[in-house]
Structure prediction request, 480 residues.
Amino acid sequence: MQAAQNDLITRIGPGTPCGSLLRRYWHPVALLDEFEPRLDPAMALRPLKAVRLLGQDFVLWRDADGRHSLLDRDCPHRGADLKYARHEGDGVRCPFHGWKFAADGRCLETPAEPSIHGVGSTLCQRVRQRSYPLRVAAGTLFAYLGPEGVAAPALPAFDCFAAPASHSFAFKGLWRCNWLQAFEVGIDPAHASFLHRMLDEDVDPAHTYGRQFRGASAGSIDGERWPMTRVLRECHSPEIHHEALGDKAAGLTRITTLRLINERFTHVRVTNALFPYTFVIPLSETVTITQMHVPVDDINTYWYSFFTSFDAPLDKETMRNQRLANTELPDYLPKKGRSNDWGYDATEQASRTYLGMGEADINVHDQWACESMGAIQDRTREHLGTSDKVIMANRRTLLAAIETVKAGGTPPGQLDAAAAAALVGPDTIDCVAPAAGWESTWREGCAAKRARAAWLAGTPPAVGSVPAPAAAATASNPAA
Prediction:
């Protein structure tokens, strides 16, 4: 890749081509948990916090009626920092000159302005702080930073947004790197056989709850259930397929990864990618993870993970505590990073894990892979192979989408209500299947999983659950 192209697809601040593209979508801006006094005691007194998104600074706050608001952080009077605003229940007031703003950005008061002939100043009627649309989904506040007066798109009808609170859990964390390298690790099926390889199997069910790759895959081989750790360790040269689901403009891609076990069995892993930075993967036989990689700025990224159960309600307290063991609140900062070598242990690498950075939380494995590339990966030095076909295809889509927006067009994944409603699911699975006939096996497994979920009763089937005609499937699955 040329340096100019790498710069084009990684720089996302205001006025940049890629930034203009990304501002066409909804972005997670905070967990609802971030306003929970039990997790952040400061919120009991003053539910307001500074946030940064796509290289812009904002204040996010909740008023006395429970409504959330996202405002530009600089006061429109003389630019003072509204992170330190006085929270007055029905508005926030700049301490510099007392200007007060409502949740919708209206200026309510400019108390230092004098009355003239007994008539109060009308300056506040001519001032407005920009306020950005917010919506709540999956326990998270989403923001839309697109041009004023342009309607925001719809969110897809993904399972993570449809599941009841009892079957849904959201968490986040910060990585010190560019958004694109963070997303690309999630759509790279080959890395899991190495980066996440465990040298022992450790399949005690008491230790696998909420842990990716530690439980068994669906199905068995000669009556034996194989844990994902064994599949990844012994079958490390996958066959990777990718195809567009539904309308290509929807921006949804299914990624199917086959790991041949022997002449009779293959392992099938089905994941999905939604443009521009979301992927959907299986955590276990009954839980799916939907993960988004949201640019804070050019060199920092928050990942948001949405866990969806198709079986019993989630033990959210256990899942939260598992992740808080490696996370510092209130900003969800990782305790491991470059400053402490991501927890690297050479003894562990020699005997327990391929990487040597722990086995309880594989998220730090991905963190190391992304952060160790540098703040912005230099893609001019890459040597890509066949196993990188999904990454190459996504980069082509990203470059084309940037040009589409430049020309005034509509990029993939910017959904109207009808297109969003059609994106149900999508299905994910880890399973063992016959080497011949594996496709029907994974589809049947996904259908059974959805049928067991009471909260899905009466909903449409997942997008792409019915096989495409053979000719169309071949055409939509290019080699790279």
The chain is about 25% helix and 25% strand. The longest helix spans residues 389-406. Confidence is low (pLDDT under 50) at residues 470-480.
